[in-house]
Amino acid sequence: TAGGSRAEDAVGFRAYDLHHVDRHENRGELTVVFGTESGELKGVVLGRHLGIARTGALGGVAIDCMSPGQAATLGVIGAGRQAKSQVLAALAVRPSLCHCKIWSRQKTRAELLVASLADIAKVSFSVAASPQDAVQDAEIVVTATSSPAALLKAEWLSPGCHINYVGPKFITAHELGIDILENCEVIVTDALQQLHHDPRLTLSGNPKVQCLSKWLQGSVQGGARLSLFYSLGLAGTEVLLAADLLHVAAPADAEQGGLREWLGSCWRVFIVSICS
């Protein structure tokens, strides 16, 4: 995938092997960043965590724009890398959150995620007994699994709830049921053109879906009975995140370990910075 921004003086691409996605622990990814003004190679980012961080950041923007301003409860379906990224983003934009329930088909994975988040102040994390237990009474819901079958029912969701829908969205395999999509008053995506150009997606061609950028511009009103962010992971945005990381990873900072401290151990993103 390719992307960039003249305003950020960054353009580039991300390359990876789709065949081994979620199949091999050592699968690699490569993101290359060039300057738009001179065409100079700014650097290369190695590692698969960049895409996860990008998706999490977009989810955080959606939560900030669409969820209740003083939301206190978060329900999470899934306990993998994407789920953790969404939780961290939610906590960053909603400091009012004080309780989070996490459910996974593999209880041990939910327990591991809860343990990894346990040191976050003022937030109580717990393992949910069921999907219904995780989302009932939650003001914000995140679904981030690889499930090809619907995991939630519309009647389990509270009025005013906001959902970040990260997992499978194909007509033949979808993490959220059509009943929930039909019940949402507001549906927003980060990649409207991508959505409408892929007929395999459940909401392809649906005029109800709006672009996240309209919310950022303040042209859409919130307060929906049920709102949903249909996350597609806007292609190319990882180039801009890579450019920011390379900026942080100036040679002096890298020698002093500043980059590692800035990223934190949870990301494990490896940077190769090529400087003139």
Task: Describe it.
- By secondary structure, the protein is α/β, with parallel strands linked by helices.
- Helices cover 31% and strands 24% of the residues.
- It contains ten helices and 15 strands.
- Strands 7-6-5-8-9-14-12-13 form an eight-stranded parallel β-sheet.
- Strand 10 and strand 11 form a beta hairpin.
- Helix 1 (49-66) packs across helix 2 (81-93) and helix 1 crosses helix 8 (237-248).
- The chain starts with a strand and ends with a strand.
- Mean pLDDT is 85; it is low at 253-276.
How many helices? Answer: 10
Helix-strand category: alpha/beta
Overall helicity: 25-40%
N-end to C-end Cα span: 26 Å
Quaternary state, please? single chain
Main sheet attributes: strand count, strand direction, barrel closure: 8 strands, parallel
| Tally of DSSP β-strands | 15
Strand content: 15-25%
The stretches of 5 or more residues where confidence is low (pLDDT under 50) are: 253-276
Shape descriptor? globular
What is the H/E string? EEEEHEHEHEHEEEEHEHEHEHHHE
Mean pLDDT: 85
Q: What spatial order of strands do you see in the largest sheet?
A: 7-6-5-8-9-14-12-13
Radius of gyration of CA atoms, rounded to a whole number:
19 Å
